[in-house]
Amino acid sequence: MENRQIKYVARSTAIAARMLDGEMMIMSPVDSTFFSLNEVASAIWQAADGQTLLADIVDSRICSAFGIDRETALRDAEEFVEQLAKHGILRICTTPVANTPPSGVFHR
Amino acid sequence: MSLLEEINQRAIDLRVPLSVQLDVTYRCNERCIHCYLDHHDRGEMTTDEIIGVLDQLADAGTFFLTFSGGEVFLRRDFLKLVEHARQLLFNVKIKTNAVLIREAQAEQIRELGVDRVQISVYSHRPEVHDAITHLPGSLERTLRGVRLLTAHGVRVSIANVLMNRNIGDQAGVQELARELGVHYTVDPTITPHMDGDRTILSLRIPSTDLERILHDETLVGDVQEFCAPPAPVGADILDGYPCSAGHTFAYISPYAEVFPCVQFPLPCGNLRQQRFADIWKASQALNQVRSIRARDLEVCSECSHVGTCTRCPGLAYMEGNMRGPSSADCEKSWLRTGIRSANMIRKTEFRPSELVQIRCASPQESSLAS
Fold this sequence. Notes:
The complex is a heterodimer of chains A (108) and B (370). By secondary structure, chain A is α+β, with helices and mostly antiparallel strands. Chain A has helices at 2-5, 39-47, 54-66, 70-86, and strands at residues 8-11, 16-20, 23-27, 34-37, 49-53, 90-93. In chain A, helix 2 (39-47) packs antiparallel against helix 3 (54-66) and helix 3 (54-66) crosses helix 4 (70-86). The radius of gyration of chain A is 13 Å and the shape is globular. In chain A, 27% of the residues are buried. Chain B is an alpha/beta fold and 370 residues long. Chain B has 18 helices and nine strands. In chain B, helix 2 packs parallel to helix 3 and helix 8 crosses helix 15. The relative contact order of chain B is 0.10. Residues 363-370 of chain B have low confidence and may be disordered. At the A-B interface, strand 2 and strand 4 of A face helix 1 and helix 2 of B.
């Protein structure tokens, strides 16, 4: 549980991404795998600024907004970020990181 | 339905221009014999204008962006434009002849996260390739560009356009691509010049060669599947859109003109006078293109190939009717499957010259007749 508390997630600058009808389209820079994130996943993705703990993102953006209990939301969020990290779409770090694309570009 | 097909359908429903090709210049350092462009600069967009266009495309929801030309590296600001596009998180592809790519450009393309670079190679033999490009030493320089890009980890595709000057060299180019470790695509399409001149169509490969290409498993994969007769045409096909032009795809010229597609010279608006979103939503020309369903196509709607034909509405438009057949695609469907298209059957069955024959008689014949 303690490990979960010190997990920062940062969007990669190498991806291609665009919002379409509330869902995020993302292409992996590693293998060109194409992803479409649902509303919950998109919310986590957009908050992945490298400065905010994953647990805090789940608390502030997911639990109350989508009515999901904390334990379930955190477990799902961890699985999700690990899957995206394998494709080079997110970085998972134990310390804060800079140089993520500004979230504004996704909302265009 | 695959995820990409789902996304594409949603983009059609929401009218989002998911893919855009932006030609940043028509100038070129090669003079390819089959090229359809006018290479004179007639007022290209400035750096700031193109950056403004990129911002507008991101706002409109464009995801796949292809930079092409002309030769894109003739613009000194080209990589600055790519950098801006990547900051906006487009999936960026570049089409180039790679002649001007050096170490620095290859490195920057990699650093900017360009998805893929497509490079034209006409033959593995310098004398054939260079005779097509009219640039001595161009094959050697192009291949140096390919090697630099792959050495930096950039994904490269070799595009092999076939014409009567290089037919037979596709196996050599394919082998070259294998040696270089890059993807290979082949395209037997030669299109009319943008000014309407059709003389370059004489470069198209003969039907016998085209038939061989369409049945070559190294080029088309499963020949039995690729060349299978078309399935019966259902209502879903007739209610469908003939192609993505104007639905999820747009083309922008170096002069800020918007068209439904690269090969579809139907003017829809100019970004120097209107915003992209306004043209995309309200252009009468685009809405006319969008209104066409397969069942509205003259002749083609009654053709057994209507669901599988590669019919290009732009080529049909250049033949005189955007709702009509594209003869080059009729030929491909026929040579692929052995089944003639409705357009070909119609032309064979109705020959006015055979129904009404008027011949001038020589004076001698006239006297005999009388």
